[in-house]
Write a structure and sequence with these properties.
Elements lengths: L1 H53 L4 H48 L8 E6 L3 E6 L5 E2 L9 E2 L2 E3 L4 E2 L1 H6 L13 E2 L10 H19 L12 E6 L4 H11 L5 E5 H11 L15 E7 L4 E7 L2 E8 L3 H15 L7 H18 L4 E6 L11 E6 H23 L12 H15 L9 E5 L6 H15 L7 E2 L3 H12 L6 E4 L3 E4 L4
Parallel strand pairs: 1-8, 8-9, 10-15, 15-16
Antiparallel strand pairs: 1-2, 2-3, 2-4, 5-6, 5-7, 10-11, 11-12, 13-14, 17-18
């Protein structure tokens, strides 16, 4: 009985504790249900606070920023659109120029106005007429070029062939030459005097020889003058005294040379249907100056010039002959005679490997009056390489025309490699960008110059380089520039910065 009572008491306590735990669990469950809305509210509140902090900028503050961005975007687009319109207009003008130039080449006799082209060379001045088709003006003496030298002894003025026969390059100890070569002392300050002395007589003679009245009108004769790239401004100012009627159009030498080559079919023309214009490298080896230029769309992109050319070969040959002479020669008669024969020999060596030289009555010895010798092309070329190695490399380095990324030139070939590399860097072009290479000028007739240009292209452009080389025949090499200037379209003007422009569109 006692045991049953104890068990009942224990059961009651256990039941009471279970009931209490059950009540606590129910109460906790009710508390959780009551807290659920508050927790959800807190979560929504936290989310709203985070969203509000992200979108905290007010509408009246962000609208001006949006407007400013829109204005900037529209401005940038407008600038690009205007630039594109200018490019399209320039492209259209260029294609129109190509079409009209091609039309003028196929029908040259339809060019109404007459014009005279003037090529200012360092030794010779060449003239050409545009009507009925481009052709070189021949002087009264039968020469296709006018010698720039002048002999003025105070009473008589001698020009042309007679002055050339008296001309020589005097060195230390030689009798001074009576022939004045204006281009030897050419500077920006005396360009006007040089142009007047060298060009005025040739223009006057040409006008007197030819009937240059305009075909349909009495308008003044138009002159197209080719000028060196680095002396454009001085020459333009100088021609105000030579051409008072102000009817001159000035054209860079390399641009005129390309026009002449295209007219004669030596270079292809730019197709107006193809938007990519060809890039030309023009190597102009003149008498006293060599000029290398990059031209695209009739605009010179880069150019450099050095005081070296075909006359340097003549001076080298005269020095070789003087070394072999039995006596020293310093008088004007002997030096001018050697100069004349050396000039003929250099011209002969452009086609042959050896040239015979004969100067009569050069020495006072009765048993040996005459100079009779032969000169090999290899000997002259070796002497020229020595001249480049010893003298020119230092002089040209001071002129900053040699590439700093190339070795110092020791030969004519390495000289052209350095020059072409430098002009490519100046024009911001790669060797592969060059489509055609044109070689012109009287000095380019020598085999050494032609081989040097060819090896330069092979070095810079690989096997395709020499294939881009265009060398005209010996006559056209000296006349392409003036002939190209004579093809100037009558309805166009040339501007140094923008190239050809129609007169009625300005």
């Amino acid at each position: 009985m006692l045991r049953r009572t104890i068990l009942t008491a224990n059961q009651r306590r256990t039941s009471a504790s279970c009931q209490a735990a059950l009540i606590d669990a129910r109460q906790h469950s009710l508390d959780e249900k009551n807290d659920e809305p508050s927790r959800a509210a807190r979560r929504r509140h936290d989310q709203s606070q985070s969203l509000r902090s992200f979108h905290s900028t007010r509408r009246n503050e962000i609208l001006p920023l949006i407007a400013a961005g829109a204005v900037v975007g529209i401005g940038v687009y407008s600038v690009k659109a205007l630039r594109r319109m200018d490019e399209d207009w320039d492209e259209y003008q260029w294609q129109l120029e190509q079409y009209e130039k091609q039309l003028a080449r196929t029908n040259p006799t339809e060019q109404v106005s007459k014009a005279m082209a003037i090529d200012l060379g360092s030794v010779y001045c060449k003239l050409a007429t545009s009507h009925p088709q481009p052709s070189v003006v021949v002087s009264r003496e039968g020469d296709r070029a006018f010698f720039n030298g002048i002999v003025n002894d105070g009473t008589h003025v001698i020009r042309g062939r007679a002055a050339l026969e008296r001309f020589y390059y005097a060195t230390e100890g030689d009798e001074a030459s009576l022939v004045q070569m204006p281009w030897i002392s050419l500077t920006e300050s005396n360009a006007g005097e040089v142009v007047y002395e060298a060009v005025s007589p040739a223009i006057k003679e040409a006008i007197e020889m030819l009937d240059y009245r305009n075909v349909k009108t009495d308008e003044p004769l138009r002159k197209i003058v080719t000028v060196p790239v680095h002396f454009q401004d001085p020459f333009v100012d100088a021609f105000d005294n030579v051409l008072p009627d102000n009817q001159a159009t000035f054209l860079p030498n390399p641009v005129a040379a390309i026009w002449g080559a295209q007219t004669r079919g030596i270079l292809p023309t730019d197709d107006e249907k193809i938007k990519k214009a060809k890039t030309f490298l023009v190597v102009d080896v003149g008498g006293m100056v060599t000029q290398i230029s990059i031209v695209q769309k009739d605009i010179v992109l880069g150019s450099l010039s050095i005081p070296w050319g075909g006359e340097t070969y003549i001076q080298i040959l005269v020095e070789l002959l003087l070394k072999d002479a039995p006596i020293e020669l310093h008088d004007a008669r002997s030096l001018s005679a050697l100069q004349t024969q050396a000039r003929l020999a250099i011209m002969e060596l452009s086609n042959k490997t050896r040239a015979a030289i004969h100067v009569p009555y050069l020495f006072p010895d009765p048993k040996n009056h005459h100079l009779d010798t032969t000169m090999s092309r290899i000997v002259v070329e070796q002497a020229m390489n020595e001249h480049v190695n010893k003298d020119l490399a230092v002089d040209f380095g001071d002129l900053r025309v040699l590439s700093p990324h190339m070795p110092v030139p020791t030969t004519v070939s390495s000289l052209f490699q350095s020059l072409v590399t430098q002009v490519l860097e100046e024009g911001r072009k790669m060797p592969a960008d060059i489509d055609h290479v044109l070689v012109v000028g009287g000095g380019s007739k020598t085999h050494q110059v032609q081989d040097a240009v060819s090896s330069t292209l092979a070095m810079l452009m690989g096997g395709d380089g020499p294939k881009k080389l265009a060398i005209p025949d010996s006559v056209l090499q000296t006349e392409l520039t003036v002939l190209g200037a004579a093809t100037m379209l009558p309805s166009y003007e040339y501007h140094i910065d923008s190239g050809l422009r129609r007169i009625d569109s300005e």
